[in-house]
Write a structure and sequence with these properties.
Helices cover 43% and strands 20% of the residues. The protein has 11 helices and 13 strands.
Amino acid sequence: MALTLSRIRVTRAQVTILLTRHTATVNINKMNYFSASCGTEMTMKRFAFLGAGNMAAAIIGGMKNADITVYDKFPSQYDKFDASVKKAPTAAKAVEGTDYIVLSVKPQNFPELLAELRESGTPTDGKVFISIAAGISCESICRGLGKNVAVIRTMPNTPLMIGKGVTALSRNELVSDDDFCTVEAMFASLGKTMILPEDKMNAVIAATSSAPAYVYYFIDCIYREAKREGIDSNDLLSAICAMVSGSAEMLMSTGKTPEELIRMVTSPKGTTERAMNVLYQDNFSDIIARAMQACSERAEELSKQY
């Protein structure tokens, strides 16, 4: 039977090859980078992380056997890394001799960080800059550095910290296919990736990067109302979370649309129909739409501000 490759996910101890209609697991001794879009094993590269917060730590945690240097202006951040991760005294020192520079600071810190790199005179030719910040465009990074450089713009989400993330990626015209494949593979090892044109990177924040907060709020609302109605169980929160993850898995695995699955649950004149009518009458979809629009608007504001 012919099988179609759809994604290769790399973890420390195994490569899980997800195939259309089939799944196979292959154990390996160490992690290498692969990209499903390239179908090519990547050679080892050197990475610098400028900013060592939780998201940077999560990405680094998925990069076993990689050559990594980190810099953070708060040295206490280094405590989360073992001896295999090198620590630099300045941003300029961190990027010396590296191939990829991950800009893992908050949007408001970009002007200061880019100015420091620009004023240090550190060579940037041949290096690829990777942003994980909301609203920071490829053009603004080049402007901050005072020259045109290869930039990959990414937008991960927090489930990446447990290997279940979704990361959107785009690039400017100076990024080679090989470099883009290497960076995509880095994020694919921590979840799912999606490739977008840069003009959609602000909009996708509302759909994948900020969206976990909507889900957490939805779960919390169900949890609090269930408690109010007298369901007092230590397993209540985990049961609600299992309901959400099971519903998502059913949506992904059955090939049915959300509307079709809603109809499967909703019996005429039943309990679900009564509940759904409240959501429809109170324009729940409009609330979600307004929240997403507000998220995208803020991303556009950040793009103009920085």
